[in-house]
Design goal:
The complex is a heterodimer of chains A (244) and B (791). Chain A has 244 residues and is of the alpha/beta class. Chain A has one domain: P-loop containing nucleotide triphosphate hydrolases (Rossmann fold, 3-Layer(aba) Sandwich). Chain A contains six helices and twelve strands. In chain A, the strands form three sheets. In chain A, strands 8-9-10-5-11-12 form a six-stranded mixed sheet, sandwiched between helices. Chain A starts with a strand and ends in a 12-residue tail after the last strand. In chain B, α7 packs parallel to α10, α9 packs antiparallel against α19 and α14 crosses α20. Chain B has 791 residues and is of the alpha+beta class. Chain B is elongated and about 100 Å long. Chain B has four domains: 209 residues, no CATH class; 190 residues, no CATH class; 211 residues, no CATH class; 122 residues, Beta Barrel (Barwin-like endoglucanases). Chain B has 22 helices and 22 strands. The longest helix of chain B has 55 residues. In chain B, a hairpin with a 2-residue loop joins β7 and β8. In chain B, 53% of the residues lie in helices and 20% in strands. The chains are: A alpha/beta (244), B alpha+beta (791). At the A-B interface, α2 and α3 of A face α13, α19 and α22 of B.
């Protein structure tokens, strides 16, 4: 099956990356984080990026999210060339199209769950209600709790609600379960899976944890700043079936 | 030699480098306090030492007395008074001067020089030229200051009306004297070198001019060590009474010395008030910053303790940080203080007519500065260091839980309104750390208060000017006479060109006594319905002179421990020298030159004289002023003409020269405090919240929106601190106004709206500046690393 064809239908591209390289130079030290990555992500798919630390997957995710610009290469989000954007354009891009979920949740401690979500819905164009987003992640009963009053898994689900509330085109998750035990991790992944299915959000998920790859449609493996393999996963599992 | 720096010290220096901006702000505030302390105490020391050195060098007398006329033979009796070391008689006379470059008359004070040798007391330091020769009646030496004011020099001559005769005097020398360091002309409040000059002439020539051959009208003396000044003065007064003595006085009441000491006292007071405020703020900043460092380094502290460093070793690192910051501030403050002190000495050098020493490094002042700043550092730093010491390794190693927030009453109040999440964050953060927020508010408020306290001086002086020159003393000029004159002289003056209105005045030198307390003052006789020179109550309403009894300046009443209704013993020091008990029927509030007042008829009754005046206040039509001046110049018996506009101008000039320089310093330092506090608050907020802010940037918030969250808090705290600062400044100024009052001035407590306005504006500018600096940091936030690191 040719790339981009599934069940005989042409899929819409969300990202197209061509020859992306990223070089960090600090104090005479030259680190090649990405060495010529070509990759296309399609609308509505859930991909898992696997690889050891320093293999370049986070760097790629940051570039996809408009947090960083590559040293070389071209990156398109739909028709928008991200590699030609100004910092301000990138901010607008993140605001309108991208949802982030981080390993350490990055919630604002002075805002309640609902307010953390509202933080994003206030600046988004067509958001869902904060309560609705929290309901999607199963936190409808914790709306007025502050981060300090929530467990780690709950905090991460607030972060997911915050990421999906603006109905983003892409959801970028960097080790979302990295700080959680497996049981809690499953609950978090279920929230991500549901958002992906119900909102059709293109979702890229970084993990160290090979067990998680089974919930994805494609698994992209990284090593030494390059993609070493892209595997289709025809038997996508539900998160509760995962084991690690 | 290789200097080995152990890792802990290396860490210390790197930490210092990391917080260099904040460190500099703290050191700068410490430096301000120290600089003020060193400059004002240093200047006080220099002024005092220079004054004493000059007094010693010129053999400045201990006791002074003026009289009408006594034979030279009386000198032996004076020398026999127990306790007198040296007595010297001389002749002093006031003359009108006719200077080519001035329409209005100037007054000269002629002092006689001994026929042989130099004066035994009150010597003249000849700066150029020589002493006038006793043989040549037209030779004079004049003060350097007077010569400079008129562009005169040795070899020039000018005209003087000496006892009714116009004479040309040749300048043979320029000099200076301890007696007129602060050279006040008759009726003047401020030195004015153009209108008042001191000059020396041979005794013989002066005696001839004033019919004082074989006689004297002034005597000065130095006392033996341990002699009783009071007893000598009492005996001298008795001795001089038959010769028209007007009361001897000690050096402390000598006009120039009195003013000079007043100035020094004031300088000492302000030097004692301001530095503690600065050091308090510095202590507070130290506390905030070091606490924050300890909080962010809890994991490192835990690690060090886990490695086996003991509590003291860990505490010592942070204590050293405090000490280094204080030491930097101290060093900067010392340098700044020497520089500022040098500037102040320069200013005084042009202002006072005596040689000033250089500002040296006074080990005493420097040592106390070091101790004071060390104490401030320890007060501020010890609490924070204790946190580091107390931290248990296990607790320190565990990640801190997210700061817990609650929806407080304020939050519920705000929830009524639609309020954006960023704004909510700002309010939650402020209310979550109320202590820190209040400390920042207090810090910024202090700078507002300092600013108000500094500018308050100006308001106060303006009030003094408004009341004294425009409400109380409204005459254009005052003509004073050498001798008391019959009241009919007023009509003569009325007929002079340009005179619109006149008002007689009668001034009598008295000693006011209440038990063992006494004060040498004047009683001023005022006519009822006075319109030029008026007596005012504390609301600046005109008061009629009391028909019987005395209206006394509150300041004198306080000094003499008298109250309304008390009797005060009035010892008149001239003419028939009556002594009477007079009731105090009114207390008056005065800002400048405290006196006692009576109805003019009552003064004349007291003096057992008919209607008599010693001066006439005159309102002049300025178009005819020059004509009036030239007439008065040639009028015999006129001792001097005090012009209000000239007095006001020199008053303002004096204030500009002395006070404004100080105030300029204070305002600059207060702005620095505002900046230091605001900058620290902003930097700490940034370091605590960089991760949250970076997250927001990732979520799509623009730089401006994120900056709003960070600086909004600073803005709110600054806004809150402004009214707090105004109230604090108010009370500080209120507390300071009596402390600054001397025997010469009262500083009324007045704060104009503009003072609040300027203080607020300057502090806001400081806050905005450091906001802009911090904004640059927000713009440079690294989004990627902020996401990776846990707090």
């Amino acid at each position: 099956m040719p790339d981009g064809m599934q069940d005989g239908t042409r899929l819409t591209e969300t990202f197209r990356a061509e020859g992306i390289t990223k070089v960090y130079e600090t104090g005479g030290l030259r680190v090649e984080a990405l060495r010529g990555v070509d990759l296309t992500l399609y609308e509505g798919e859930l991909v898992v990026l696997l690889g050891p630390s320093g293999s370049g997957k986070s760097t790629l995710l940051n570039i996809l999210g408009g947090l960083d610009l590559p040293t070389d290469g071209q990156l398109f989000f739909k028709d928008l060339e991200l590699t030609a954007c100004s910092p301000h354009d990138l901010t607008i891009y993140r605001r309108d199209h991208v949802g982030f979920v981080f390993q350490f949740y990055n919630l604002i401690p002075s805002l309640t769950a609902r307010e953390n979500v509202a933080l994003v819905t206030e600046i988004a164009e067509d958001p869902m209600a904060a309560d609705e987003a929290l309901e999607m992640v199963g936190l409808e009963h914790r709306l007025d709790h502050f981060p300090s009053q929530l467990s780690g898994g709950e905090q991460q689900r607030v972060a997911i609600a915050r990421a999906i509330a603006k109905r983003p085109d892409v959801l970028l998750c960097d080790e979302p379960t990295g700080a959680l035990d497996s049981k809690t991790g499953v609950v978090v992944l279920e929230a991500l899976d549901r958002a992906n299915r119900e909102l059709g959000t293109t979702t890229a998920l970084i993990t160290h944890n090979a067990g998680i790859k089974d919930m994805s449609e494609r698994v992209i493996r990284f090593a030494d700043g390059q993609i070493i393999s892209v595997d289709e996963n025809p038997h996508k599992k539900a998160p509760e079936e995962l084991t690690w | 030699m290789v200097v080995r720096i152990d890792s802990l010290n290396r860490k210390l220096f790197r930490d210092l480098w990391r917080i260099k901006g904040q460190a500099l702000a703290i050191a700068a505030v410490v430096a301000c306090g120290i600089a003020l302390m060193i400059s004002s105490f240093g200047t006080v020391t220099v002024l005092e030492e220079s004054m004493n050195a000059f007094y010693d060098r010129t053999r400045f007398a201990d006791v002074f007395a003026s009289l009408k006329r006594a034979p030279d033979s009386l000198k032996e009796d004076i020398e026999r008074i127990p306790g007198v070391s040296v007595a010297e008689t001389r002749i002093i006379a006031a003359v009108n001067l006719d200077l080519p470059n001035m329409a209005e008359p100037a007054t000269g004070q002629l002092l006689s020089l001994p026929e042989r040798g130099t004066p035994l007391l009150n010597d003249v330091i000849i700066l150029s030229g020589r002493y006038p020769s006793a043989q040549r009646p037209n030779e004079v030496a004049i003060t350097d200051a007077f010569a400079n004011a008129h562009g005169l020099t040795v070899g020039d001559s000018f005209k003087a009306i000496i006892n009714g005769n116009k004479r040309s005097l040749e300048i043979v020398g320029l000099g200076m004297t301890a007696e007129y360091i602060y050279a006040l002309g008759p009726g003047s409040l401020m030195p004015d070198d153009r209108r008042f000059g001191v000059m020396w002439m041979g005794r013989k020539a002066l005696a001839a001019a004033f019919d004082l051959d074989g006689a004297f009208n002034n005597v000065t003396m130095s006392l033996q060590l341990g002699a009783s000044e009071e007893e000598v003065i009492r005996r001298l007064d008795t001795l001089l009474e038959p010769y028209g003595g007007v009361g001897a006085y000690a050096r402390e009441d000598q006009l120039s010395n009195f003013f000079l000491n007043n100035e020094i006292t004031q300088l000492r007071t302000s030097g004692a008030i301001f530095p503690p405020v600065f050091l308090l703020v510095a202590a507070f900043l130290l506390n905030v910053v070091v606490s924050r460092i300890v909080a962010t380094e809890r994991e490192q502290i835990g690690l060090l303790k886990a490695f086996g460093y003991n509590d003291l070793e860990v505490g010592w690192i942070y204590l050293k940080l405090v000490l280094i910051l204080v030491a930097i501030g101290l060093a900067m403050g010392m340098a700044l203080g020497l520089w500022m002190g040098g500037g102040m000495i320069n200013m005084y050098t042009t202002y006072y007519k005596f040689p000033l020493l250089d500002l040296g490094i006074d080990p005493g002042v420097f040592a106390s500065a070091a101790i004071v700043s060390l104490v401030a550092g320890l007060v501020g730093g010890l609490g924070a260091v204790r946190q580091a010491v107390k931290l248990s390794p296990a607790v320190a190693m565990a990640p801190p839980v997210p700061t817990s927030y609650k929806t407080g009453a304020l939050s519920r109040f705000f929830s009524q309104f639609t309020i954006s999440q960023p704004t909510r964050m700002i309010f939650r953060h402020v209310t979550r750390f109320p202590v820190r927020a209040s400390l920042t508010i207090i810090g910024v408020a202090f700078s507002v208060a300092l600013m108000i306290m500094s500018l308050f001086f100006l308001d106060s002086v303006e009030r003094v000017i408004a009341v004294y020159f425009f409400q109380a003393e409204r005459q254009s000029l005052t003509v004073s006479f050498v001798e008391p004159r019959p009241a009919t002289v007023e009509q003569e003056i009325q007929h002079l060109p340009g005179v619109i209105q006149t008002q007689p005045t009668r001034s009598v030198a008295v000693r006011l006594r209440n038990g063992h307390l006494s004060d040498r003052k004047s009683i001023i006789g005022i006519v009822p319905g006075a319109d030029l020179n008026r007596l005012l109550d504390s609301e600046q309403k005109t008061i009629e002179p009391p028909p019987g009894g005395l209206a006394l300046s509150k300041h004198i009443a306080k000094d003499l421990n008298l109250k309304l209704g008390d009797l005060v013993t009035v010892e008149v020091l001239q003419e028939r020298r009556p002594v009477e008990e007079i009731k105090i029927v009114r207390l008056v509030e005065e800002y400048l030159g405290f006196q006692a007042y009576m109805h003019i008829d009552a003064v004349n009754r007291l003096m057992r004289e008919g209607p008599t005046v010693t001066g006439i206040h005159v309102m002049v039509d300025s178009r005819y002023a020059d004509d009036l001046y030239s007439t008065l110049k040639d009028t015999p018996g006129v001792a001097g003409i005090a012009q209000q506009t000239a007095t006001l101008a020199s008053f303002r000039e004096t204030m500009d020269n002395t006070m404004n320089v100080m105030i300029g310093f204070y305002v600059a330092l207060a702005s620095l405090i505002a900046f230091g506090v605001a900058y620290n608050a902003a930097r700490i907020a940034l370091s605590e919240r960089s991760r949250a802010l970076a997250s927001l940037r990732v979520l799509g918030f623009t730089r401006e929106e994120v900056t709003y969250i960070l600086l909004g808090e600073l803005g709110i705290l600054t806004l809150v601190s402004l009214p707090v600062g105004c109230v604090l400044g108010d009370s500080m100024a209120l507390a300071m106004s009596p402390m600054l009052s001397t025997d010469l001035y009262n500083f009324p407590f007045v704060i104009e709206n503009a003072t609040y306005g300027w203080s607020v504006v300057v502090v806001c500018i400081s806050a905005v500046l450091c906001g802009l600096i911090t904004r640059r940091r927000v713009f440079g936030l690294d989004l990627v690393t902020a996401l990776k690191t846990r707090e």
